[in-house]
Amino acid sequence: MKTYVVLCLADIHVGSKLAVLHPDTQGYALHNEAQEYLWECWKHMLDNIPKTIDALVLMDECMDGPSRPNNKYGTLITTPFGQRQAAKKLLEPVIWRTTESGKKVKRCKQVWSLIGSAWHIGEWGEHTLMLAEELGSEKWKSEKRAGHNLLLRYGNIVLDFAHHSSYTMVNRSMPLEREIRYRAIDNPLPKDMQLEAEIKLIVRAHTHTFGQWEDRHMKALSCPGWMFPFYQYGVAKKSMARIQPDIGWALMRIKPDAKPPIAIHVERYDLPGTDVYDVEVGKWWGSVE
């Protein structure tokens, strides 16, 4: 039986000063070392994802959204049109690839777009739908190009995608275990389909961290993001640790008749370390990774 390939990208936040940005974005250059590093990671991803992908799932927050009055999020691109065009520029090489002969061919057979949090998008919600349409995202039952909860079925295997997820600062597996328990109680599949297919993988985003949990019934995965933290607005406000995010992408291979039927590959990139100063020696030792 065929092996299906699904790529998930989450929390890209194009428009932020500390999020990934294509260097050829019209009107903007890479703003700092963080963006330069993230672009190198993005290029590594483009070089290592498969040439053919059955579904690209954009877990949303592709755009960072409006600049807040206190600007704690450090918005670089302040207009919805600018963020939308920058996100499109960044994502097009994922959806399309160039062959050795120079021909442009579609890499992703399907593109699915999810809707993220109102805090980031808010009044720019229509631009999320416009970006989804410009990227050629599939239509949902609502006839819109984006939605909240996506169920993809491959044979007797169903994958459950949503942007939103609860968050704990230390025990990252706890929200994923909770999602599995919820799905055991509240199965969104039609009753007639429940005899033919099962949800075997739950995929969530929003937290910018990688996590994985499984029981004997299904797996759950939290996707890494593409944005560095702002230390002045860290999650652990009383700790310099600030709960570092994960940067990277997730790839699933689904073979319904195999055991196990789902193989997950998550690529996570190193984060710049913390500079260490030795008081006794009186010297900076550089970064600890």
Task: Summarize this entry quickly.
This protein is α/β, with parallel strands linked by helices and 289 residues long. It is built from five helices and 15 strands.
Query: What Rg, in angstroms, do the CA atoms define?
Result: 20 Å
Average pLDDT, rounded to a whole number, is 85
Major sheet: size, sense and barrel closure? 6 strands, mixed
Unreliable segments (pLDDT under 50, ≥5 consecutive)? Answer: 231-236
Features:
single chain, 289 residues, alpha/beta, Purple Acid Phosphatase, chain A, domain 2, six-stranded mixed sheet, five-stranded mixed sheet, 5 helices
Describe the structure.
20% of the residues lie in helices and 28% in strands. It has 289 residues and is α/β, with parallel strands linked by helices. It has a single domain (4-288), classed as Purple Acid Phosphatase, chain A, domain 2 (4-Layer Sandwich). α3 (125-134) links the parallel β5 and β6. α2 (80-95) packs parallel to α3. It is globular and about 60 Å long. The model is unreliable at 231-236 (pLDDT under 50).
